[in-house]
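Standup notes, structure subgroup. Blocker cleared on the magnesium ion input:
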Amino acid sequence: SFDAKDMFEDIILALSENSKVKNVRIKNNISDIMLFGEKVLLQRAFLNLVQNAVKYNKLNEEVVVTAAQNDDFVTVNIKDNGIGIPEEELENIFEPFYRIDASRSRELGGSGLGLSIVKTIIEKHKGEILFESEIDVFTKVTVILPKN
Ligand code: ATP
Ligand code: MG
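Run returned:
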């Protein structure tokens, strides 16, 4: 197992260039939570999620990372204050190469592979991933991972 806060500190460092140009602060509000599984894979999954949170955030808005746990599961939340995801798109976003509305995504670049990789990694760990969003207000990603 490995420390969740430390992992997100690495991720925040890796994304510092991206977040600086948008003046997006990434708040790591995790403390004393361990994650179980393959660190390299889970770090890739969470990097992709935080990268999206920065990329689709508005200028000068925060991204906040939190986590909680019980005896069986760890729950990690990543919330941005960005452009949001339309309800009817939530079933599509995990498809490889899928990007919502080329016009809004084109200038931001990307291949549309990020979330398909996330899904594969979370499923490999027998976890779950959920999105909650309001257009033009926020997107909140919840990842639930079993402890073992
Ligand atoms: P890549 O991750 O491969 O660089 P990408 O970010 O476009 O490219 P995904 O990460 O798979 O691809 O995301 C798929 C689509 O879901 C994105 O193009 C974007 O439209 C939407 N999306 C993902 N995360 C968010 C978010 N936090 N807020 C708003 N839209 C999002
Ligand atoms: Mg992405």
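Discussed briefly. The radius of gyration is 14 Å.
Next: hand off to the docking folks.
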